[in-house]
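Can anyone check this?
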Amino acid sequence: MNITNAKAPAQLEVKKHLYGVICSLVAISCLLLSSQKVNALAIEPFPYELSPQAQLSQPPLTQEQLTQEQLTQERLTQEGRTQELLENEREIELPEALVIESEAPDANKALAGVYGSISSVGSDTLATLISLWAEAFKSDYPQVKFQIQASGSATAPQALSQGTATIGPMSRALTASEISRFTQKYGYPPTTFIVAVDAIAIYVEKNNPLQQLHLTEVDALFSATRFCGAERHLDTWNDLGVTKFGTNREVLLYGRNSASGTYDLFKQQGLCEGDYKPRVNELPGSASVVLSIASSVGGLGYAAMGYDDDNVKALPIGVNGPADQVQYIAPTTDNITSGAYPFSRYLYIVVNKAPNEPLPILERAFLQFILSDEGQAMVSENGYYPINQELKVSQLQKLVN
């Protein structure tokens, strides 16, 4: 038997066995590598939910794990909403510059409660201002109606007492008898508001050479009684040292009628409560007085300062100062508002207001406008003088107290 041929099958079997072993080792190595990759992937969280079958195979969660999982879900939900809001906000385009537009007032709201009619009876001096205030007020409250009668300050308390007026403009203070009559009817006195400052001026025609007058000369010209101390009457221009009109040219005197507050105040301050001369021409309005002086030859008269124009001139008035030194004071703004000018005065609006009760809303709104910056600016624009801030505050408080 050939020994070489006998060993060949045996060697073949050994080779086959070794080959199988090697293949097995290779397979095991591949399995080990695959297992490591799977474990590495398992470290990262799954981006999807487990299938129902996989969920059934998971061990039950503890209460602490359930709470933690719920908090995590809420946090993720909130982060998602925040992210959505941020994405929406990025879509809003802001303007380069912020433009602020004033919103038009609500007309119905602005006009609530302010309607009806205001009847004004009283001062001629205040007639122009009352008319201007009324027109400006109606631009804000067009449904309000005004009836204005300028027949003199004396008619104001009478109309208020009779209930035929809602406001009573006056160019002088109420007298004791006027307050008494009103109080007897209503059980309380009328309420007075200071709304402007005015002055009475002594006017001559603009080309008249007369430059000034002393208070005693004013009394001697207009008064029959001369209570201010004049030694004699002054009746002609020659008595005043003016020769332009001849030696016997009588001074033509003009003034207001007896229903006027200007008439009463001039009687008090210029005539020392004396009586007027019968020849003083009494006119129904200050405008008429100024026009008559400007168009006459040798005319002189008194009227409200607010009616001054280019055809007349207002004379400085002389008063006795310390040691009887005479000081002539011109009717300028500073002199009038400070009280240095002798014929300065307040202008008033009188109303029927029960004590401790606010004025009715219509009258209250109108007086608030009069006392406002706009209303007082109109005072300055029309030849009168506004009241100061301290006085304005006190008048506004009277509207509601």
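Reply from J.R.: I decoded it. The first helix runs from residue 3 to 43.
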